[in-house]
Design a protein that fits this description.
The protein is an alpha+beta fold and about 180 residues long. It is built from six helices and four strands. The chain is globular, with a radius of gyration of 15 Å. It starts with a helix and ends in a 9-residue tail after the last helix.
């Protein structure tokens, strides 16, 4: 059972956040971050993932993933939500967004559901982060499932906030192997 730990460590190191608990569902088996079997958790069959930000927990349904890149992008999206929540709570670095945006995130997290509205600030930012990781790490142009115009300021902020040298440093720290990727 592949756990994607080095990629998770890379993302968490990049954003200076606590590593979330990650739980996998794959072929009627349930695993934790270490690949150990766990008790089954409830998850709709057609949902790829969901996050419980205040518990710093992510649940993935690997059976719904199209390919390995899809898994990486879903992880990037959900881990970004964990980073957003931690930033609003003063955990880790709070420089992943401007203060007024973090205030909006805090309001959105107070009524956060797993059925996100793609125009919420937390979703626009998470989608922009996925776009950034796809482009920089995997050389892929990831299509956002939100309004591109609304996501543009987030893309700009994220591009300014993470340097290529920082990404390479975090890759070395995490042990994540890029293979055929671009960074």
């Amino acid at each position: 059972m592949k756990t994607y730990n080095s990629f998770i460590i890379f993302l968490c190191s990049l954003m200076a956040i606590e590593i979330p608990d990650v739980y996998y569902h794959y072929k009627n088996q349930y695993y934790d971050l270490e690949g150990d079997e766990i008790k089954p958790f409830k998850m709709d069959e057609d949902i790829k993932s969901f996050v419980i930000p205040d518990e710093n927990s992510i649940y993935l349904n690997l059976d719904c993933m199209e390919n390995e890149l899809d898994v990486y992008m879903v992880l990037a999206h959900e881990i970004r939500h964990c980073a957003q929540y931690q930033a609003t709570e003063g955990i880790g670095l709070a420089d992943i967004a401007e203060r007024d945006i973090m205030y909006q995130w805090k309001r959105e997290f107070s009524r956060f559901t797993t059925h996100e509205n793609t125009c919420q600030e937390v979703e626009l930012d998470a989608n922009a982060f996925v776009w950034f990781i796809g482009k920089v790490m995997f050389g892929e142009e990831i299509k956002l499932n939100c309004d591109e115009v609304l996501a543009k300021p987030y893309k700009k902020y994220i591009c300014r906030n993470y340097s290529l040298s920082e990404i390479k440093e975090r890759l070395d720290y995490s042990g994540f192997e890029l293979g055929q990727t671009q960074a």
